[in-house]
Amino acid sequence: MSDDSQSAARRESIVRAGTGVFLRFGFRKTSMHDVARAAGISRQGLYLHFSTKNDLFRAVVTHMLDDLRSTTWQALGRDDRPVEKRLADAFEAFHGVTVAAVDRLIFAEVLQAAQSFAADTMSGLERDLVADTGRLLDRTGHAAPWRENGLTPADLAQHLFDASAGAKYESASLEEYRRRLIVAVRIVTRSTER
């Protein structure tokens, strides 16, 4: 393995370790020492890759958002699965990944810290998910019965997004989140099965 490949692999390992530490302790309480220990390297070794905690945090948030985009749109694009399952899987990938796995207050603090440099990216992901969900509902015919009630595919998609986001904060477990989400998805997708 070349020096560049080793450096990239080490950086990736640090970012993954940093993700776990930031999600466990929050931005303010995480130290470079905590991340170095989790990554199995010295603090000096960590500083070779990231000169400040802010630089490391930016890399962690970027990595998290890239993973979020990848897993969400992979689930949404699964043409081999029923629409109901695709929607449930996509919203779980987007919102459910932290349910009962991360302390809500710590996650809120991490999100707040990320707002300073990633707000546009996060808002863009939300808009893209709503838009692509609306297109999926329209393309598969699930939005058609709702039009007579004055609801557009975008309205339905926003409803699913909002239900998923709300369920994330109201659910004590991933199973509870999934139950709440599937109710919202079934309401939207089963309207065509009268």
Keywords:
194 residues, mainly alpha, Tetracycline Repressor, domain 2, 0% strand
State the major sheet. Answer: none
The helix count comes to: 9
Radius of gyration: 19 Å
Helix content range: over 70%
Q: How many domains would you count in the coordinates? A: 1
CATH superfamily placement: Tetracycline Repressor, domain 2
Distance between the termini: 60 Å
Would you identify the CATH architecture? Answer: Orthogonal Bundle
Low-confidence stretches: none
Report strand %.
under 5%
Mean pLDDT: 93
Encode the helix/strand succession as letters: HHHHHHHHH
Overall number of strands: 0
The helix-and-strand class reads mainly alpha
* Apparent shape: elongated
- The CATH topology name reads Tetracycline Repressor, domain 2
The CATH class assignment is Mainly Alpha
Task: Produce the secondary structure layout.
Layout: H1 3-25, H2 32-39, H3 43-49, H4 53-76, H5 83-95, H6 104-139, H7 144-147, H8 153-170, H9 174-189
Notes on the structure:
With 194 residues, this protein is mainly alpha-helical. The protein has one domain (3-192): Orthogonal Bundle (Tetracycline Repressor, domain 2), CATH 1.10.357. It has nine helices and no strands. Helix 1 (3-25) packs across helix 4 (53-76), helix 4 packs antiparallel against helix 5 and helix 8 (153-170) runs antiparallel to helix 9 (174-189). The mean pLDDT is 93.
